[in-house]
Amino acid sequence: MCRYHVITLSRYYDGAFGAWRLLFLLLLLPSFVHCQSLTDMHEVQVSAARRLSDTGIQQTTLDTAVLHRNVAMSMSDILTQHSSLFIKSYGRATESTAEFRGTSPAHTQVLWNGMHINSPMLGTVDFSTIPAYFVDEATLLHGASSLAATGGGLGGAVVLSTSPVRQHGLSAQYIQGVGSYTTFDQFLRLTYGNSRWSNSTRVGYATSAGDFHYTNYDKKVDVRDADGNITSSYHPTEHNRSGYFHDLHALHESYYDTPHAGRIGLAAWFTHSLRGLPFLSVDYRDDADFTNEHQQDAIRAVAMWQHSPAATWSLDVRGGYAWQDIAYDYYTHRSGDARNIITQSQSYSQQAFVQAKADFMPAADWLLSARLGATYNHVRSYDRTPFHIGDNYNRGRMEGALSLSAKYRVTRRLALSAILREELYATDLVPLIPALFADYSIVSSTKTQLIAKASVARNYRYPTMDDLYFQPGGNPDLRPERGFTYDGGLELRHHDKAFGIEANVSAFDSHISDWILWTPNVHGFWQPANIKRVHNYGIEATASPSLTLPRGWKADVTVNYAYTPSINRSDDLDDADTSRGKQLVYVPLHSANATAALSWKSWTLRYLWHSYSERFTTTSNDVSRITGRLKPYYMSDVMLEKDFQLRRTHIALKGVVYNLLDSEYVTVLSRPMPGRHFEVFAEIRL
Amino acid sequence: MLLAALVLLAACSNSDPGTEEEPFDTAGPGVFVLCEGNFNAGNATLSYYDPDSHTVENAVFYRANDRRLGDTGQSITLHSGTAYIAVENSGIIWAIDATTFRVRGQLTTGQTQHMTNPRYIHFVSDTRAYVTDLYAPYITVFNPQTMEYCASIATEQPAAYGYCSTEHLVQYGTEVFTNCWSYSNKLLVVDTQHEVVTDSICLSSWQPKSMVLDARGKLWVVTDGGYATDEDSFSDNIPHLYRIDAATHTIEMDQALDTDEGSVELATSPDGTVLYLINNDVYRMDITASHVPVRPFITAERGNNGLRHKLYGIGVNPANGELYIADAVDYSQAGIVRRYTADGTLIDQFRVGINPNGFAFK
């Protein structure tokens, strides 16, 4: 069967055929990864060498080309379309959280240029507030592999970074996007560099009314005759109410390569965001009478020094500061009434961190690393709600972490790695976090690498400041969540003259106990407790074949798939509780996405597809109730790009159709999503 | 092939495009169970239980009307063959036929001058009904026959930040009493003839949560006591039970209850001579008693881990005095209703929707 595919493929290398047939063929490419009969192709050197620092690490790397594909996209969109993470979101510019391997959003640790950007209050990150155009590299560290970067990632970690632009002189890039629902995206980047300096300033501003129309199947309008009898009824067409947003981001970076003391750099990122919180599909109130919005201002800055005094050791020292002001306002302003403020909450958080990392190679087969970091978080959370008035809490917390690791290449094929990590939260030491990694090179030729990887780790996540201190409800007696995970998998890299593929498949098994869960109490507020045990296991797979064809054609496909049972193993609350043994709420069992790109000279056609299987909305997974499940979710986007090169000016035009097949769908209960909609972009680079 | 499969999959509709409206004809006695659902999920539902056949039909509002009930179903009240359902966070009051469950009409916030989050409904007459509100400092008056807005009664209480919500409504003569739960310790007295607030009663404990009237014209009020933690407090977290003379507005009894976390709720027997109190367990006391008994009438069951069932609502069938106790389980799965005889013997139990909190008896 494999041989047949290869012969067929080889035949088509020389012949011209329709784009649709080529795309069809490319989508079958993942099945070629097991074939051994590609020897008739010209061999080329595999470009990516196996690094000792990556020993046993299960990671997914998203490069700049993926991240900078569409200025309208946030990291939420990128992760939805290019990773196996589950992104819980209900539209553009709405809160979007990422779940690794069926864990909770707080189990995904996120670093930006080495600084934790998880909210010290909630432990989560809203990925919709991170524009993908402001990130140059993104690495997803799955499961135990997250310990290579940070602790607390019981699901995994997302490592985001910016990087210097290597160029001489001044350049500029401007992108203007105009889309449905009065959506405008603007992006400007100015860069300047020489042999030592690299400076970059990016500004992005996005606005939208977000007022898409949809058929509201949750409501029905009755048409009555003069006697009040219903003569007909219909599901009304409504518009998404309070879906507006204004997001402003500015990022400046400066890097300087000193003659003898390495590189110093600074990255500073400012955010101002004002977003309406959309009404539920079952809300009958008039949006003209209510304002329900979320405002966020943030500054994050990281200074770094990277130096390799000798070939055998290197230093990375960095420090940073972050300030965040988040406000939530809900009030009525009905005609003839005084404004009635229902909820007014505000939180200020500040974070300062320093971190030093040293790598030392005492011998060619050894790599020793030490990482020492300290972070101070301070939060003032203030509320005026029906359930609380005044400071929720006003607290600071010192956190420290020490990580030691050793990596050893035992033989040419076998490498082992160990990490020991210790974390301190205020005066509490979490138990020692150990992790072991191994990889074995099964095939290592000039064009093909096939590596088996395995890891095992214990991990802990300390409670967030809201968990401990939020008033009312905070529980100072909470214990850290405990995780134990092990995984194994295969990683394939093959690069030939015309054909290349990178593929990864891994299986994992993870147990989390003392899972912190907030549940309502009778006084109208919620309280956290260590009440859950969860067993997560499953498979993650990725394949990215690419094909370079004659006459300027090029094709790429990326496919991601995850199977993630995430089972509640807690004791029954009582004999009425049927949640034990059931999939966690909103965690899909299957998730998949695929991106196919076909390029010809300066034209690129890209098709993006992603899917989530059904998600349960109750802990008992009872689907007999009308709202017990969300149907499987399938989505298609398509984009067409054309580049023009006019002397020193580069112009690009792009058209995007979102929700190509105009599906009617929801991703979260009572949160309708937009139908088919469009955006066009014009880009100029000087 | 894969592309074709993707396109076919993507072409499927991923939302619920509605269903056929299901005919119901439930003549005879029955029990409505309102299930609040989860806040901001829009999954409130209505169940209907036939006590003769011991059968339950769930989500009957949706099935009969092909539309969802809404977000946070707060209360259900029967009047003249129609069930009125206040759905708080949807800003709507539904009027449905108690036999067919078909919608007869609705009152939305936009039809009124002040209504924001409707909580409870009381019928002063066949053409005049009062609605309390979580946020608006007004009691809304509407005509239950036409579902048209009539007037608003200003509570004259501070409204911002959720202060002084109005909750249950109880009528004694021409006066209607309402308890202000949110950040308040007051009961308000409304003169139904002039539709103005004429008096208020201050309690020693905060956040009066539930209120009933007994056969002797005494108001019984239970507070939840606010909350109190090591670092922050609003009141002392100690629930109190009060007996108040409805005629003179004087407090005759004030008893502090156990502080153990638990829901507090009140109900009376059909003849108004027996008081039922949920405070973790269910207590039963004669209205002439001077204090709540030490031993519960119905003990909330405990699971293998020793945790007690979360009793979330109580209803007493006016026809026979049977008790219906709602159990929220973990607040995120279908709740259970247990049916007891008036002497506390378990008759039946059945699953309903998420967070059952209210009953109405047909």
Give a description of the structure.
The complex is a heterodimer of chains A (686) and B (362). Chain A has 686 residues and is mostly beta strands. In chain A, 6% of the residues lie in helices and 56% in strands. In chain A, the strands form seven sheets. Chain A has a 22-stranded antiparallel beta barrel. In chain A, strands 1-6-7-4-5 form a five-stranded mixed β-sheet. Chain A has a two-stranded antiparallel ribbon with strand order 2-3. In chain A, strand 31 and strand 32 (603-612) form a beta hairpin. The longest helix of chain A is centred in the N-terminal third of the chain and has 13 residues, at 2-14. The two termini of chain A are 50 Å apart. In chain A, 44% of the residues are buried. In chain B, the strands form eight sheets. Chain B has a four-stranded antiparallel β-sheet. Chain B has a four-stranded antiparallel β-sheet with strand order 4-5-6-7. In chain B, a hairpin with a 4-residue loop joins strand 14 (186-191) and strand 15. The mean pLDDT of chain B is 90. At the A-B interface, helix 2, strand 19, strand 21 and strand 35 of A face helix 1 and strand 7 of B.
Output the keywords.
heterodimer; A: 686 residues; mainly beta; 22-stranded antiparallel beta barrel; 5-stranded mixed sheet; disordered N terminus; B: 362 residues; 4-stranded antiparallel sheet; 2 helices; 47% strand; globular
Structural class of chain A: mainly beta
Unreliable segments of chain A (pLDDT under 50, ≥5 consecutive)? 1-48
What overall geometry of chain A do the principal axes of the alpha carbons give?
globular
> Level of helix content of chain B?
under 10%
Give the biggest beta sheet of chain A.
22 strands, antiparallel, barrel
Strand order, biggest sheet of chain B? 3-2-1-29
Subunit organisation of the chains: heterodimer
Please indicate the percent range of residues of chain B in DSSP E strands (runs of 2 or more).
over 45%
According to DSSP, the number of beta strands of chain A is: 39
Given as residue ranges, the uncertain stretches of chain B (5+ residues, pLDDT < 50) are none
The beta-strand count of chain B equals 29
Radius of gyration of chain B over all CA atoms, rounded? 21 Å
